[in-house]
């Protein structure tokens, strides 16, 4: 159902929406300075994802109050929420549950208005309104609101941390950053006109840089499954009730699979077989039945944001500081992610 709403026709519209949102957001950065890149990209990704995945009405309602509700909802995304029962009277759980109710009631109004409207939009909200289960039943307002929230949150931390890490890899390797800028001109034209989806697909160096960022900094470090029935995995017997974990972080660094495993080398993907033919050597988006459904959207979003940023600014590390990893957050974010930037002259 959700996959139907993440298709190429929609991505074609998303590129210009994301480019415009990025230009507008970064106006506040001015000519040059030093700013927290991760914070900025987290805010921008809420705006772009809300616009593309929720539709223009919900994006239009996104003011500071709604942003605070998202922040409260997000505040419940902690190790405590993973391990403890959701009904515990912790302040962060209460704020999360209140924000959840309030966001849903905002969404209900938009959903109702859309249901009554004569005109049909071409977006995810419309896809969910028009969808039905196998037995023919349509989705309720509550189910649609829940799915919209789920989509936003599934892509929020993953895309914002990945975008921030990509920025730091490019700032550390100025030669690659300049090649990415040159690629913008080579693919899109010297005068850098507005981006299109077809051009985005041809930005192959930027693509490889993103791919390599996801290898070295996969936002989801571990995936877990519980065995419901006795299972046998890689020669081990897993009794019912036991968990099996797979870690992209580990698989992505195995020396048997990857040459110079810890180095940022986007050109490794020019080879046919960069991971020695291992099937699960590269799994930033998971694998199997619950594999990520947002991979293509994430690529469109992050590549559009970084194309726009590379055209606007040149980025540098400050005193050669490349962020260490903050292992205390659910998704491992960069520590002190401040970057130096200077506007480019065309
Ligand atoms: C760089 C960006 C992203 C990364 C690295 C990523 C990674 C992942 C991974 C590893 C999983 C599987 C989790 C598991 O097996 O337990 C997953 C699931 C999922 N992702 Fe993403 N994701 C990203 C962006 C997005 C975006 C933008 C969306 C929405 C548009 C999204 C929607 C989902 C959903 C709905 C699932 C659950 C699928 C299911 O359970 O069947 N993701 N993601």
UniProtKB/TrEMBL annotation:
This is Lanosterol 14-alpha demethylase. It is an enzyme of class 1 (oxidoreductase). InterPro entries: CYP450_sterol_14alpha_dmase (IPR050529), Cyt_P450 (IPR001128), Cyt_P450_CS (IPR017972), Cyt_P450_E_grp-IV (IPR002403), Cyt_P450_sf (IPR036396). It comes from Chloebia gouldiae (Gouldian finch). It is found in: Endoplasmic reticulum membrane. Heme binds at residue 292. Its cofactor is heme. Pfam families: p450 (PF00067). Pathway: Steroid biosynthesis; zymosterol biosynthesis; zymosterol from lanosterol: step 1/6. GO terms for molecular function: heme binding; iron ion binding; sterol 14-demethylase activity. Belongs to the cytochrome P450 family. Its main location: endoplasmic reticulum. The keyword Iron applies. One of its GO terms (cellular component) is endoplasmic reticulum membrane. It catalyses: a 14alpha-methyl steroid + 3 reduced [NADPH--hemoprotein reductase] + 3 O2 = a Delta(14) steroid + formate + 3 oxidized [NADPH--hemoprotein reductase] + 4 H2O + 4 H(+); a 14alpha-hydroxymethyl steroid + reduced [NADPH--hemoprotein reductase] + O2 = a 14alpha-formyl steroid + oxidized [NADPH--hemoprotein reductase] + 2 H2O + H(+); 32-oxo-24,25-dihydrolanosterol + reduced [NADPH--hemoprotein reductase] + O2 = 4,4-dimethyl-8,14-cholestadien-3beta-ol + formate + oxidized [NADPH--hemoprotein reductase] + H2O + 2 H(+); a 14alpha-formyl steroid + reduced [NADPH--hemoprotein reductase] + O2 = a Delta(14) steroid + formate + oxidized [NADPH--hemoprotein reductase] + H2O + 2 H(+). Keywords: Cholesterol biosynthesis, Cholesterol metabolism, Endoplasmic reticulum, Heme, Iron, Lipid biosynthesis, Lipid metabolism, Membrane, Metal-binding, Monooxygenase, Oxidoreductase, Steroid biosynthesis, Steroid metabolism, Sterol biosynthesis, Sterol metabolism, Transmembrane, Transmembrane helix. It is a single-pass membrane protein. The keyword Iron applies. GO terms for biological process: cholesterol biosynthetic process. Its EC number is 1.14.14.154.
């Amino acid at each position: 159902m959700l996959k139907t709403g993440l298709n190429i026709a929609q991505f074609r519209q998303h590129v210009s929406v994301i480019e415009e949102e990025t230009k507008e957001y970064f106006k506040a950065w001015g000519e040059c300075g030093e700013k927290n890149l991760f914070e900025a990209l987290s805010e921008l990704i809420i705006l772009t994802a809300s616009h593309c995945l929720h539709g223009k009405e919900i994006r239009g309602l996104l003011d500071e109050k709604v942003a605070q509700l998202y922040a409260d909802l997000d505040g419940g995304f902690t190790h405590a929420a993973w391990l403890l029962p959701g009904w515990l009277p912790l302040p962060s759980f209460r704020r999360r549950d209140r924000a959840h109710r309030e966001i849903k009631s905002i969404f209900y109004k938009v959903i109702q208005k859309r249901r009554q409207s004569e005109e049909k939009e071409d977006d995810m909200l419309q896809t969910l309104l028009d969808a039905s289960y196998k037995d023919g039943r349509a989705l309720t307002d509550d189910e649609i609101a829940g799915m919209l929230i789920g989509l936003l949150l599934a892509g929020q931390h993953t895309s914002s941390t990945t975008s921030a890490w990509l920025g730091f890899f490019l700032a550390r390797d100025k030669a690659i950053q300049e090649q990415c800028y040159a690629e913008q001109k080579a693919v899109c034209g010297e005068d850098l006109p507005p981006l299109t989806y077809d051009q985005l697909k041809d930005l192959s160096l930027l693509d490889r840089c993103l791919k390599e960022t996801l290898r070295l900094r996969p936002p989801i470090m571990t995936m877990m499954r519980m065995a419901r029935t006795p299972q046998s995995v890689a020669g081990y017997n897993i009794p019912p009730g036991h968990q099996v974990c797979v870690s992209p972080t580990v698989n992505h660094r195995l020396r048997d699979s990857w040459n110079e495993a810890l180095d940022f080398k986007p050109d490794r993907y020019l080879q046919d077989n960069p991971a020695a033919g291992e099937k699960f050597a590269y799994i930033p988006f998971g694998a199997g039945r619950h594999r990520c459904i947002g991979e293509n959207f994430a690529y469109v979003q992050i590549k559009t944001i970084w194309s726009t940023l590379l055209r606007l600014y040149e980025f540098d590390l400050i005193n050669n500081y490349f962020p260490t990893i903050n292992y205390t957050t659910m998704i491992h974010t960069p520590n002190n992610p401040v970057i130096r930037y200077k506007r480019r002259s065309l």
